[in-house]
Specification:
about 350 residues; alpha+beta; 2 domains; four-stranded mixed sheet; two-stranded antiparallel sheet; 12 helices; 6 strands
C-alpha cells in the first residue's frame, strides 16, 4: 500500500487518542507467543516433579483395585479423577492466561475500544477486501510468516533428528527412564523454540511500532484542520478576544465616574482610584490605562467632574504595580492620602 508522501508530520496527541479509541495500537502477535513459550518452559521445569508425585499417587490408587475403573461402581473415582486433573491443569491454564494478558497489556496498556467492535460496511466491501488480499502489506506478511515457519521447521528438524538418534540408543532402558527422556526432549524442544522466538518477537514489535507511527503520520493540512476543529478558527478566536477586550473596556470606563480621583502622567498614564473608608481597607484601582486608553479615562473623568491630579512618578508606579480591582499597596498610602485630602478639601468633603 503506497504511503501518502504529504504525511510527513508526527501524529498529534488527539490523533493518537482517536486511533486508540478505534483499537489501533502498536501490537506484535509474536510477543505473546514468545512469552507463552518461555513461561511454558519455566512451568514445566518447576511443575514436572510436582505433577510426577500427583500422577504417581493417582495411578497407585487407580491400579490398586481394577473396580475403580468402572465409574458406575465407584463414583468416588470419577470425582477423584476430576480433582487430580483440576489440580494439574488449573495452575497451568491460569499462568498461561495471565501471560497472554500481561504480554498484550505491556505493549499498549489497558485498552477498551468499543468502536473497534462496531460493524463497518468497508469491512464487507468485496472490492476493498480483494485489494487487501493482493496488497504489498499482505504479501510482506506472507513472506515473513513463511520465513519464520521455514526457520522454525529447520530448527525443529535438527533437534528432532538428534532426539530420534538418541532414542534408538536407549530402546532397552527401563520405562521410567523413557518417561524421563520424553520429558527431557520435550523441554529441549520448547526451550529451543522459546529462544528462537525472543529475537523474532523483538524485531516484529519494533517493526510494528515503526509501522504504527508511519500510519499515524499526518500532513501539515490535517494538523491545521485539526487545530481549527478543536481550538477554533484563529480569525474567530481573534474576534472573540477583541470583543472581550471591548466589553472589559466598557466595564472599566463605567467605573471611572464613580472614582474619587484620577492620577495622571499628563500624556501617557491614567489611574482611577475610589475610596470609601467605611467599606474599604485602602483606596482601590477601578480603571487604568496608557496612551489612548489614558486619554479616554481622562475624557470620561472630565465629563463626570472627577478630579484629575497630575503626578507622573506616582501614576507610573501605580500603573505598573497595581491591577484593576486591587487595593493599593501600603507604600503608596501616604502619597495617595495627601492627594485625596487635597481633593476632598477642594470639594468641601471630609472622607479621610
Amino acid at each position: 500500500m503506497a504511503k501518502d508522501p504529504s504525511k510527513t508530520e508526527k501524529a498529534t496527541p488527539r490523533r493518537r487518542q482517536k486511533a486508540r479509541e478505534e483499537g489501533q495500537v502498536a501490537k506484535s502477535q509474536d510477543i505473546p507467543i514468545s512469552a507463552t513459550l518461555v513461561i511454558t518452559f519455566l512451568i514445566l521445569v518447576w511443575y514436572i516433579p510436582y505433577s510426577y508425585e500427583i500422577l504417581s499417587s493417582y495411578f497407585r490408587y487407580t491400579f490398586s483395585d481394577p473396580l475403580y475403573l468402572i465409574p458406575e461402581i465407584n463414583s468416588g473415582f470419577v470425582f477423584y479423577t476430576v480433582k487430580v486433573l483440576g489440580i494439574l491443569l488449573a495452575p497451568v491454564f491460569i499462568a498461561l492466561l495471565l501471560t497472554g494478558v500481561i504480554s498484550n497489556v505491556a505493549q499498549f496498556g489497558l485498552l477498551f475500544a468499543p468502536k473497534a467492535l462496531a460493524p463497518k460496511l468497508e469491512r464487507i466491501n468485496v472490492i476493498k477486501g480483494l485489494g487487501r488480499l493482493v496488497s504489498l502489506k499482505t504479501l510482506f506478511e506472507l513472506v515473513r510468516n513463511l520465513l519464520k515457519l521455514a526457520f522454525a521447521t529447520a530448527v525443529a528438524y535438527f533437534i528432532v533428528m538428534d532426539i530420534i538418534s538418541q532414542a534408538f540408543n536407549t530402546s532397552f532402558v527401563p520405562l521410567n527412564h523413557e518417561v524421563y527422556l520424553l520429558f527431557k526432549y520435550t523441554l529441549v524442544l520448547i526451550l529451543a523454540f522459546a529462544l528462537i522466538s525472543i529475537p523474532v518477537a523483538i524485531i516484529d514489535f519494533l517493526y510494528r511500532k515503526w509501522e504504527y507511527e508511519e500510519n499515524l503520520k499526518m500532513s501539515k493540512h490535517e494538523i491545521k484542520e485539526e487545530r481549527k476543529m478543536y481550538e477554533g478558527n484563529p480569525q474567530i478566536k481573534a474576534a472573540i478576544r477583541r470583543k472581550q477586550r471591548e466589553m472589559a473596556m466598557m466595564r472599566m470606563m463605567a467605573e471611572v465616574p464613580k472614582a474619587d480621583v484620577v492620577i495622571t502622567n499628563p500624556e501617557h498614564y491614567a489611574v482611577a482610584l475610589v475610596y470609601d473608608k467605611e467599606e474599604m481597607e485602602a483606596p482601590k484601582v477601578v480603571a487604568k490605562g496608557k496612551n489612548l486608553i489614558a486619554e479616554k479615562i481622562k475624557e470620561v473623568a472630565k465629563k463626570n467632574n472627577v478630579p484629575i491630579v497630575e503626578d507622573p512618578p506616582l501614576a507610573r508606579a501605580l500603573y505598573s504595580s497595581v491591577e484593576i480591582g486591587e487595593y493599593i499597596p501600603e507604600k503608596f498610602y501616604v502619597a495617595i492620602a495627601k492627594i485625596l485630602a487635597r481633593v476632598y478639601k477642594e470639594q468641601g468633603k471630609v472622607k479621610i
